Structures are given as structure tokens and as C-alpha cells.
Amino acid sequence: MKEVDLRLDRMIEIAGQLKVPLDHVVKHMGRCDQSRFLILSETPEMLPRYIKSSDKP
């Protein structure tokens, strides 16, 4: 399995764990270097808080 696939799988797990949209996790972790990605993977609560918008499109 490619590293990109493994990273995506981990981001999906984190989104489920934190009960936030995957887009939120990808926004903050998708372009991290590997060392930062590992830190956030081990402590996902370090991600910025997700606040659901009350605006309706």
C-alpha cells in the first residue's frame, strides 16, 4: 500500500474518532511533512477545533 493511501486511511480514522468532517482533517493534515503528520496522528486532539457553520448556502 502506498504512503498516500496509509495517510488517507489514518485521516479517515481521525475524522471518525473526533466526529468531524474528513475535509477538516485533510485541510490540516493533508500537506504536513511526515514528522508533523505522525505527531498529529498520535495526538489528533491537537488539531484546531472544528466549528460547524450556521450559515446556509
Question: What is the topology?
Answer:
Blueprint lengths: L2 H16 L3 H8 L4 H9 L15
Helix pairs in contact: 1-2
Number of helices: 3
Range of helix content:
55-70%
**Overall 3D shape:** globular
* SS content category: mainly alpha
N-to-C CA distance: 38 Å
Say how many strands there are. Answer: 0
Rg over C-alpha atoms, rounded to the nearest angstrom: 12 Å
Residue fraction in strands? under 5%
**How many domain regions?**
1
Mean pLDDT: 90
Low-pLDDT ranges: none
Could you explain how this protein is built, in words?
There is one protein chain. This protein has 57 residues and is an all-alpha fold. The chain has one domain (3-52). The protein has helices at 3-18, 22-29, 34-42. Helix 1 crosses helix 2 (22-29). The protein starts with a helix and ends in a 15-residue tail after the last helix.
Quick tags:
58% helix, 3 helices, 57 residues
Describe the structure in brief.
With 57 residues, this protein is an all-alpha fold.
